Amino acid sequence: MSKTKTYYQCQSCGHASPKWLGKCPDCGSWNSFVEEKSVPPGRRTSGIDTLGKTAPVALGAIDTVSESRTPTGLQEFDRVLGGGVVPGSVVLVGGDPGIGKSTLLLQTFSGLSKKSGKLLYVSGEESPRQIKMRADRLTVNADNIILLPETSLEGILDTAAKLSPEAMVVDSIQTVYTQEMLSAPGSVGQVRECSAKLMLFAKRSGIPVFIVGHVTKEGTIAGPRVLEHIVDTVLYFEGDRGHSYRILRTMKNRFGSTNEIGVFEMSDAGLREVDNPSELFLSERPRNVSGSAVVASLEGTRPLMVEVQALVSQTNFGMPRRTSIGVDFNRVNLLVAVLEKRAGLHLGGMDIFVNVVGGLKIMEPAVDLGIVATVSSSVREVPVDPRTCVFGEVGLSGEVRAVAQAEARLREAAKIGFKKAIVPAGNAEKIKNDQGLEIMGVRDVEACIEAVLS
Ligand code: TYD
Ligand code: MG
């Protein structure tokens, strides 16, 4: 085997060195050196041998093959993928260790193996026996799944090329190394190089590749998001260790929407799909306690009823504390300022904590009215009626603005058993089908507080 020469390069200024350095002598940044493959002079390509081999094509001249997507058998997973597995796509499944990434992919393979040929599961973390034990627990359809305990990328690609499977999993990218680099598996250089080669393999062979990536302490997959722009689809598997449900979220998708989520529940027989997540997130809601309101929110195309809680109490320190979990911190501060100025609530000397129940994160503006409702409920110590839900965006002058897809939100609310919805007046005028709910349109935060706390 010919030994490829490598060098180390500072990722912030590009300074090159034959040896690894802790601090860049040029720009002074720390820990920025990453191993790179040196390219022989005159061959400056990204390792893809396309030099002079590709011809330009007119966009109109490309015939559209209708994308053939293979359903995985897990509807929630298909949803986040945009309808199924696309041939030749590379999907990165990221998440904290122990969250259930291997379980999810094994179950996906179980579903896929019912319809297609051989599937290759490469594991650098677990022995075949460990995987078999898990497969038995999950009652996986095991006939078509081939296990490969291998960490050398060259070996993996070799086997994959010979076997030509219908799909392939690499669990995890942090354990795989290419012989062309000297650095340890899991280092930025290795992870980048290995994923680039897997991508090339997927594109050439048309075999879809799932890559498992652990999230580092900084919350990124192996360093500064090196993987995310290489692959086609980035999914994050999230969840709280203390809770049994898991959320699969799309961060990037070249073949579908990026707003979709899939909801699963971890049981003793593996991941179970949750058809009705709203019920799950509302199941432990306290009744007749102040500082809790339900927002009819929308995740992608999917309406989701979520509980937003607030705790407002007199501060014991000079500086009041403001904390938000699951909603944007600046958004909470802004709404608190609006409540003070436009609704006359005295929040200046108060600690305010806002929390979205169940570890969910809601980034859409329709949650504004929920925060307004729950904060004012906590201040006034008046509970919000448990069968009332809210949604709407709040502007700086205290006006309540209309939001998209009001009817989809109301449909979900009615399905869960809500009786009343407090919505922006702009939405209330246009709603044709109120799903049997009592709809109350509000124009400003004062009207909202009045409606919620009466
Ligand atoms: P795993 O898929 O190994 O996580 P990852 O690959 O993301 O590191 O999941 C491991 C966790 O899931 C482990 O804590 C046990 C739990 N689990 C169950 O609760 N039920 C099951 O049926 C399985 C297979 C795992
Ligand atoms: Mg694992």
What key phrases describe this protein's structure?
454 residues, alpha/beta, Rossmann fold, Ribosomal Protein S5, domain 2, nine-stranded mixed β-sheet, seven-stranded mixed β-sheet, 26% helix, binds thymidine-5'-diphosphate, binds magnesium ion
Can you tell me about this structure?
With 454 residues, the protein is an alpha/beta fold. The chain has 3 domains: 6-37; 70-275, P-loop containing nucleotide triphosphate hydrolases (Rossmann fold); 280-453, Ribosomal Protein S5, domain 2, CATH 3.30.230.10. Helices cover 26% and strands 25% of the residues. It has helices at 75-81, 101-113, 128-137, 153-163, 188-205, 277-282, 329-343, 368-380, 406-416, 425-428, 445-453; strands at residues 6-10, 16-17, 33-37, 90-95, 119-123, 145-148, 167-171, 209-214, 233-239, 245-253, 261-267, 270-273, 292-299, 302-314, 322-325, 350-356, 388-390, 393-394, 400-401, 420-424, 438-442. It has a 9-stranded mixed β-sheet with strand order 6-5-7-8-4-9-10-11-12, sandwiched between helices. It has a 7-stranded mixed β-sheet with strand order 15-16-14-13-17-20-21. A 3-stranded antiparallel β-sheet has the order 2-1-3. α7 links the parallel β15 and β16 (350-356). The radius of gyration is 26 Å and the shape is globular. Bound molecules: thymidine-5'-diphosphate and magnesium ion.
